[in-house]
From TrEMBL, chain A:
SUPFAM superfamilies in alphabetical order: SufE/NifU
Fe-S metabolism associated domain residues: 17-138
Species of origin: Agromyces atrinae
The protein's name: Cysteine desulfuration protein SufE
Family: Belongs to the SufE family.
TrEMBL record, chain B:
UniProtKB keywords: Pyruvate, Repeat, Transferase
CDD domains assigned to the protein according to its UniProt record, in alphabetical order: TST_Repeat_1, TST_Repeat_2
Taxon lineage: Bacteria, Bacillati, Actinomycetota, Actinomycetes, Micrococcales
Gene3D superfamilies found in the cross-reference section: Rhodanese-like domain (3.40.250.10)
Reaction it catalyzes: thiosulfate + hydrogen cyanide = thiocyanate + sulfite + 2 H(+)
Domain Rhodanese: 31-138, 173-288
UniProt name for this protein: Sulfurtransferase
InterPro entries xref list: Rhodanese-like_dom, Rhodanese-like_dom_sf, Thiosulfate_sulfurtransferase, Thiosulphate_STrfase_CS
Keyword presence, Repeat: yes
GO MF annotation list: thiosulfate-cyanide sulfurtransferase activity
Organism this protein belongs to: Agromyces atrinae
Amino acid sequence: MTESTLPAQLAEIRDEFLELEVSDRLLLLLEFSNELPELPERFRDHPDLFERVVECQSPVFIVTEVDDAGGVHLHATAPAESPTTRGFASILAQGLDGLTVDEVLAVPDDYPDTLGLTVAVSPLRIRGMAGLLGRTKRQLRERRAAG
Amino acid sequence: MTVAFDPAAKFADYAHPERLVSTAWLDEHRGDPGLVVVESDEDVLLYETGHIPGAVKVDWHTELNDPVVRDYLTGEQFAALLSSKGISRDSTVVIYGDKNNWWAAYALWVFSLFGHEDVRLLDGGRDLWIAEGRELTTDRVTPAPTDYPVVERDDSAIRAFKDDVLAHLGHPLIDVRSPEEYSGQRTSAPAYPEEGALRAGHIPTAASVPWARAAAPDATFRTRAELDAIYTDEVGLSADEPIIAYCRIGERSSHTWFVLEHLLGYENVRNYDGSWTEWGSAVRVPIVSGPERGEVPAR
């Protein structure tokens, strides 16, 4: 995996974090947490469509979608009492939105480690975000294999 | 200067009722001189989303640990931390947090390593405070720095190391992890990332008592009678025996340590913070897999 495969919107989010002092990175993560997009109505009453991300310390559930134009959308739900997990989900939901399946699959698996957050929230918790990204990619691979 | 104790009837049955305060007591006393309220959570952003007015945040990961040694702060580092939080050596500190005060108990245990005398937990923690609709704020707190003295940490009384545990085999050990971790089906808590212990199972002879059994559904501690039924009657612990509790990195077992030491008044309880992440990977230490406690290994 090389730098060139990182989509612009993910690179932008990463740079936003790295420009900040460590304590302000936490506040930016909180902003992301507050901006986690609401679920579209068609998903709201369908917990069965979601996959639990067991790598995370808090209950977080995801589902991926590919629209008619080939754009990927990641929908996630996590409780308000878990702002860190919500923040991770929001970064990916916003950072991956509209990319093609190939572009998402090419996102480096260590992207969560590059945000400068391991010092602020512990490497252990960052693995939760890696789990979110890994499961997102797996869902897309399975969808593609299913044709 | 010591702030008055909470005279709540429930606490009177505990061995050390002065170690707990109720939400109602804290609401009434949170402005008292000499009292500092500390929030310590598992989720590092929770404090920023709203905290008890005036409470300062202590993050276990970035603030209580040495950055390079797997150990807690030195005396100098602890003095600097507490000074920056507006805590004096004679302050009454009330700690609360998320998830049944799991991390709050951990912070209390670390404060106790430094002999901070008056440190209490908020019974029910953050969850109960919120459930009762009590005030929260997102205002930033800027405590006036204090001059906390440099106190050397004393690990001897309440902290156990791997060699201490080896020497302790044959005396009571409490494994507070989930049944799946105890039996060896997995090395990390359900829904927690793997932390890389090489083997799965438990320390020989350890009794399995998941930590959350000590908490009621509203996040408060169970009553003295309920706790006695678990730890004394069921597990067979007695107050004068040496006891060691452990989990995966020592945080969940701090909660059990608090219960045994302060609520039941057991006199010789240590927390093994190396816990399973160390024991499960250490060379030449015995483990047991499966649901049975196992025997003391022949030496």
